[in-house]
């Protein structure tokens, strides 16, 4: 994963937009840096990656991505420490995951050296966009789209792989109360819920809008078969603390294998918290709420790291969670952040230095 | 549904590409006419539709459609009769369906007058692209995509609605043998399988590639819960003839409510064929194949109208269907085509004249 940068074609932006950006007031995901990486797939091969000025894409109206949703993406962050060094958190996980998503969407895998060379080169060029200070980061969005012209429902033979970057402040997920899905579903057994594919997201918008009307911020999806087991939220895996035990459901066909999730599990286990990875019944939450065993629920994901859940709704009833002083959520979030910003020791070898 | 055309902004192409097109050798969905309709949604409203020269789209790399698959589409055809009149087949069905799809994908509904005015105006401009003669048609692809910039997984506030057109010859679906899905699935209960949304298509490509390696052309999806009931194929609803009875499964959450399907049902019933709309077990196909009751299977959809299925594969076994002389498939297909091309009487009021 050393950067070699031999092949990448670089076209620098004539001037930087950075002076126009208010880094103390950044809405998430809407300001982009000066450059982006683009790599085209055609004639059965990925062409030489390019780093070019950030700019619109020009595509045929019949490009497959518009009609058939053949597209995958990733989300990761770069952090700057007080010495000005730039770090990624487990980027190999994102690299392998986008290729796993691509395989399921009949898209070609992206070469490892292109990914890491492109990323390193781009991030070094955008170094000024990565601000030091806890909470500040550069959100990185690798994605690939089917670009071949032609409205026939079959796999594209042409693709674009891109990396775009957006400076971010600490993501305050806000007060999150979730609705537990009773009727709508996110993914089918034997489907592609495990993939970070475009087609998994827009379908959540309408049910989430309905939940918002009822005063919830997000939906916790349940299995489509019985709606008896909780699965994950829009862009977060879900943890439940029962007594001193931490529960999270197994990933599989339907559930994204989150990088934050697996890091939370490792950190919790390391400090002697018992972690049970098994299906979690909605009825357990209700019982746990009643008998006081249900202490915490939180979501895990790259954007917010850990997002405490304050309460949930189910079958017309609302359930508030207790307010914890020394919560697992806060403790593990701090540990994660300390590793990400090169403040704490990196026992697991998760940090990756950009250079 | 009269065309008023008061508002549409028209910019004509400087010259036509039509001379360069070989109308006797048209690969499906890859040649497009000289113009397209575009209508933008912003500030909470659809703006004035425009008809402009067919051209690429320019979108921000962070446009929602690339990342979250917020996109819907339709497929319909225009037919020219021997008097040079141009006909659509039940376009109101496509209009209502795209709005039903949009609602499920948290997209704004498109106004009826914009749809029909746009379509009529565009089709009159492209009149030379619609060739008379059975089998020739103009395939019409209305679609809408989320264009707002910003990589946050929430509904776009900006959209583009487009209509593009591609001349087509009789679509010969080829010899179709289908694999009955045993492991992969297309849609979840409580999901959006009923919508003609981009996210329903790319997920089928990989399982279909695997089926192709085994010598099948398409997959017949089964319910994700049990894989015991057949549902639909990639872009076709499925009919089964048992004895003299025609079976097709009910539509619902998971299955597209096909225009061809409902027309086949109406035509069959009109001529006294008993049509049973009920869940169809895979085991019934196996039994019917054994005892000779299974006479036909066919798919129905706009592209191929009716596509006979020659055989199917299930759990490693292959089953061939009998070769019928006077099949329901051939008979009903002919009746449908005769209505579409203004050859037969239009008892049901399905034809819509473009003028
Ligand atoms: C559906 C879904 N679940 C969970 C997550 C969390 O994954 P990660 O921790 O890798 O960001 C994401 C992505 O952020 C997601 O899109
Ligand atoms: C999933 C699916 N099923 C069935 C059909 C058939 O529908 P229609 O007869 O309206 O073309 C289509 C579209 O063509 C489709 O995309």
From TrEMBL, chains A, B:
N6-(pyridoxal phosphate)lysine: modified positions: 196
Sorted keywords for this record are: Amino-acid biosynthesis, Aminotransferase, Branched-chain amino acid biosynthesis, Pyridoxal phosphate, Transferase
Enzyme class, UniProt record, top EC level: transferase
Enumerate the cofactors the protein uses: pyridoxal 5'-phosphate
Which pathway is this protein engaged in?
Answer: Amino-acid biosynthesis; L-valine biosynthesis; L-valine from pyruvate: step 4/4; Amino-acid biosynthesis; L-leucine biosynthesis; L-leucine from 3-methyl-2-oxobutanoate: step 4/4; Amino-acid biosynthesis; L-isoleucine biosynthesis; L-isoleucine from 2-oxobutanoate: step 4/4
One of the entry's Gene Ontology molecular-function terms is: L-isoleucine-2-oxoglutarate transaminase activity
EC number annotated for this UniProt entry: 2.6.1.42
InterPro entries registered for this protein in UniProt? Aminotrans_IV, Aminotrans_IV_CS, Aminotransferase-like, B_amino_transII, BCAT-like_C, BCAT-like_N, BCAT_family
- Name the GO terms of the biological process aspect: isoleucine biosynthetic process; L-leucine biosynthetic process; L-valine biosynthetic process
Keyword Transcription applies:
no
Q: Which domain of life is it from?
A: Bacteria
The reply to whether Transferase figures as a keyword in the UniProt entry is yes
Reactions catalysed according to its record = L-isoleucine + 2-oxoglutarate = (S)-3-methyl-2-oxopentanoate + L-glutamate; L-valine + 2-oxoglutarate = 3-methyl-2-oxobutanoate + L-glutamate; L-leucine + 2-oxoglutarate = 4-methyl-2-oxopentanoate + L-glutamate
**Xref: PANTHER family:** BRANCHED-CHAIN-AMINO-ACID AMINOTRANSFERASE (PTHR11825:SF44), SUBGROUP IIII AMINOTRANSFERASE (PTHR11825)
Q: Which family does it belong to?
A: Belongs to the class-IV pyridoxal-phosphate-dependent aminotransferase family.
Free-text function comment from the UniProt entry? Acts on leucine, isoleucine and valine.
Name used for this protein in its record: Branched-chain-amino-acid aminotransferase
UniProt source species: Zeaxanthinibacter enoshimensis
């Amino acid at each position: 994963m050393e950067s070699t940068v031999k092949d990448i074609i670089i076209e620098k932006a004539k001037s930087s937009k950075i002076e126009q950006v208010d880094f103390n007031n950044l809405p998430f995901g809407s300001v982009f840096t000066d450059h982006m990486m683009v790599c085209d797939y055609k004639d059965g091969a990925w062409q030489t990656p390019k780093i070019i000025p950030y700019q619109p894409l020009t595509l045929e109206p019949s490009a497959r991505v518009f009609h058939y949703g053949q597209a995958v993406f990733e989300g990761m962050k770069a952090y700057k420490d007080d010495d000005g060094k730039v770090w990624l958190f487990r980027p190999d996980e994102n690299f392998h995951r986008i290729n796993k998503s691509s395989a399921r969407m009949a898209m070609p895998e992206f070469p490892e050296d292109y990914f890491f060379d492109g990323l390193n080169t781009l991030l070094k060029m955008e170094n000024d966009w990565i601000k030091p200070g806890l909470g500040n980061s550069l959100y990185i969005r690798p994605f690939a789209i089917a670009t071949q012209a032609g409205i026939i429902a079959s796999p594209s033979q042409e693709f674009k792989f891109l990396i775009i970057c957006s400076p971010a402040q600490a993501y305050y997920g806000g007060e999150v109360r979730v609705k537990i899905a009773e009727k709508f579903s996110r993914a089918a057994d034997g489907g592609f819920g495990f993939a970070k594919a475009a087609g998994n997201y827009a379908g959540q918008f309408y049910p989430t809008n309905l939940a918002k009307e009822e005063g919830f911020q997000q939906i916790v999806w349940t299995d489509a078969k019985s709606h008896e087991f909780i699965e994950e939220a829009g862009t977060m895996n879900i943890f439940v603390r029962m007594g001193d035990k931490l529960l999270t459901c197994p990933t599989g066909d339907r559930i994204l294998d989150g990088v934050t999730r697996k890091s939370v599990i490792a950190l919790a286990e390391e400090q002697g918290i018992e972690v049970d990875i098994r299906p979690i019944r909605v009825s357990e939450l209700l019982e746990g709420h009643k008998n006081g065993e249900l202490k915490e629920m939180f979501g895990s994901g790259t954007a917010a790291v850990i997002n405490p859940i304050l309460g949930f709704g189910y079958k017309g009833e609302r359930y508030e969670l207790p307010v914890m002083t020394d919560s697992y959520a806060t403790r593990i979030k701090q540990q994660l952040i300390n590793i990400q910003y090169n403040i704490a020791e990196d026992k697991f070898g998760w940090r990756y230095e950009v250079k």
